From TrEMBL:
<dbReference type="Pfam" id="PF00535">
    <property type="entry name" value="Glycos_transf_2"/>
</dbReference>
<feature type="domain" description="Glycosyltransferase 2-like">
    <location>
        <begin position="4"/>
        <end position="144"/>
    </location>
</feature>
<dbReference type="InterPro" id="IPR001173">
    <property type="entry name" value="Glyco_trans_2-like"/>
</dbReference>
<dbReference type="InterPro" id="IPR029044">
    <property type="entry name" value="Nucleotide-diphossugar_trans"/>
</dbReference>
<protein>
    <recommendedName>
        <fullName>Glycosyltransferase 2-like domain-containing protein</fullName>
    </recommendedName>
</protein>
């Protein structure tokens, strides 16, 4: 089998349905399977999709164990040569999968690949192509908006949206990786509940000598954050994920950067908590 599409669902049944419809439409010429893990949604309406999409393997989880564990659970049953980690609030937009898989096949040390993402209003989502977080680009992202549109920073604004290029980080909303490579590097780190695990995986691939790619010739619609309530729980998970990352990669290897990043994250977290009140 060529491809396993892996989706973790939580309370977004209408969006998940649209996602599955797009797979059925645009992957007709690909030998693929789709595996959906439902992370203990409080809305049980996803079960109505089971008879509508008999080709999809649905795996219910009794508990919400987070994005990383949900993906790893599905991947443990996957059979595809390649894995496509795909958010349920996304939709494919073209017959480009064969082209992408052929591109991956032709690359030595292929790590992972992401595509151009836009929201429902057509706005490009800059997280489609990113750099590894460091002291300088993280400070810019956390505290300033003074970056040039063509600059290389946390967001790779120096790379045109429509091109194909090597990058450090792509997003877990659409992340293509060989199954054997995913298993070789240990998959998504289950220390993360949500957020940050895609950055960690991409960085791990780079450290292992693999190359990651942004494929701007293909696009997806991403209804970003439709299932996310921006409350204190969200803030704890988001900033907690960033702390996991810097503890893992900077605390010992780059202690000065670690101290600055830790202080910056703590300050930004407190600012965002005040905004909620």
């Amino acid at each position: 089998m060529r491809l396993s599409v892996i989706i973790v669902n939580y309370n977004v049944t209408p969006l998940l349905r649209n996602c599955l419809v797009s797979l059925r439409k645009y992957l007709r010429e690909t030998d693929y399977e789709t595996i959906v893990v439902d992370n203990a949604s409080t809305d049980p309406s996803w079960k109505k999709l089971v008879p509508e999409f008999p080709e999809v393997r649905f795996i219910p989880s009794e508990t919400n164990d987070g994005f990383a564990k949900g993906n790893n659970k599905a991947i443990s049953t996957a059979k595809g040569e390649y894995l496509l980690l795909l958010n349920p609030d996304t939709e494919l937009e073209g017959f480009y999968m064969k082209e992408i898989l052929d591109f991956a096949d032709a690359r030595n040390n292929f790590g992972c690949l992401g595509v151009r993402m836009h929201d429902a209003e057509g706005r490009f989502l800059p997280e489609s192509k990113r750099s590894v977080p460091d002291m300088f680009n993280s400070f810019e992202k956390l505290f300033t908006n003074f970056k040039k549109n063509n600059s290389k920073s946390y967001y790779r604004c120096d790379i045109d949206e429509q091109v194909v290029a090597e990058v450090d980080i792509v997003t877990g909303a659409f992340l293509l990786v060989k199954r054997e490579v995913y298993q070789e590097v240990g998959g998504l780190d289950e220390s993360y509940f949500m957020y940050g695990e895609d950055i960690d995986l991409c960085y791990t691939l780079l450290k292992k000598g693999f190359k990651n790619f942004y494929y701007g010739k293909a696009s997806i619609l991403h209804h970003k954050g439709e299932s996310t309530v921006k409350d204190e729980v969200y803030l704890e998970r988001f900033y907690g994920a960033m702390h996991i990352f810097i503890n893992k990669y900077y605390r010992t290897a780059k202690p000065v950067q670690y101290s600055f990043l830790k202080a910056g994250l703590n300050l930004r977290h407190q600012i965002e908590k005040i905004k909620l009140k």
